[in-house]
Specification:
The complex is a heterodimer.
Chain A (H helix, E strand, L loop, with lengths): L12 H15 L4 H15 L6 H26 L7 E5 L2 E6 L2 H12 L5 E4 L6 E4 L12
Antiparallel strand pairs in A: 1-2, 1-3
Chain B lengths: L12 E7 L6 E8 L6 E4 H6 L6 E7 L4 E13 L2 E11 L4 E3 L1 H4 L3 E5 L4 E5 L2
Parallel strand pairs in B: 2-7, 3-6
Antiparallel strand pairs in B: 1-2, 1-5, 4-5, 5-6, 8-9
The chains are: A alpha+beta, B mainly beta.
């Protein structure tokens, strides 16, 4: 049995009324929670966030380390020994810095083990990559 | 090497081994060479199969300009006779790997579309 959480969200009144009517027509009385839970699950799963407790634990750790970096980011940006380089954050502390992210990852994993360590470039904005090639789906590629 | 006819039109593709850092736990997958991709993309099953641990986050834009945020993971890649240590990759819901310019720029790639032939060298 998974833990349940109660939450409150604000939505447009008209949207909520229309949603309620559709759910009432299609599912009957008192089924809005069920539909919202289904939509949430679909939203999360479509983005590849699987129901894996260990992976969720790792992601929450990484987000904590990221928060720690954001707190000191402005001062790191002003410091030429960090600006433009990659830093590794572990348990809220900077544990490594290198211009080569792969070398940095290797050194911190060798030192602390293969555990969640946040590795990010000290830059004013987040890293952005393009994966622009559209693909025609004709059949599944078997690996 | 010959282009793979698994794709239509045929594409330069090969089998590549991926390793979890500091371990010999590995998976072999079909890889498609994608010179347009800034970064290598692996199927989500590689992340779960190798029990990869996230290490970063990037914003990713696709061909239609849609943006998404993805966690990144480090892997070791064994491609033909080459070994690339600690390559940062992202995961996606796909069955093959897209080998991006993060790895391709470490090699000399020759694509002969006319003869459906390609080669990867380390000059």
């Amino acid at each position: 049995m998974c833990n349940m959480v109660k939450t409150t969200v604000e939505v447009d009144d008209d949207l909520w009324r229309r949603f309620s009517i559709i759910v009432l027509r299609e599912r009957g009385e008192r089924r809005k929670n069920e539909v919202i839970a289904e939509m949430l699950r679909e939203y999360v799963e479509r983005r590849g966030f699987r129901d894996d407790p260990q992976q969720l634990k790792h992601i929450l750790r990484i987000e904590e380390e990221r928060e720690a970096l954001l707190k000191v980011q402005d001062s790191l940006l002003r410091d030429p020994s960090y600006r433009g380089k990659y830093v590794a954050i572990f348990q809220g502390l900077i544990v490594g810095c290198d211009s080569d992210k792969g070398k940095l990852a290797k050194s911190v994993y060798e030192k602390y083990g293969y555990v969640p360590i946040y590795i990010e470039r000290v830059a004013p904005s987040e890293r952005h990559v393009e994966i622009p090639s559209p693909e025609v789906i004709r059949r599944e590629i078997q690996s | 090497m010959k282009y793979s006819l698994d794709y239509d039109p045929p594409a330069p593709a090969l089998k590549v081994r991926f390793n979890r850092p500091l371990s010999d736990h590995s998976m072999e997958l079909q890889v498609k060479i994608d010179t347009g991709a800034d970064m290598t993309v692996v199927p989500e099953r590689v992340i779960s199969g190798l029990r990869l641990i996230p290490a970063g986050r990037v914003s990713v834009s696709s061909f239609d300009g849609r943006e998404d945020r993805r966690y990144t993971y480090f892997v070791n890649i064994y491609l033909s006779n080459f070994e690339f240590s600690m390559i940062e990759v992202i995961g996606a819901r796909r069955s093959d790997v897209l080998l991006g310019r993060d790895v391709l720029n470490l090699l000399k790639a020759v694509l002969d579309g006319k003869d459906l032939d390609f080669d990867l060298f380390d000059p």
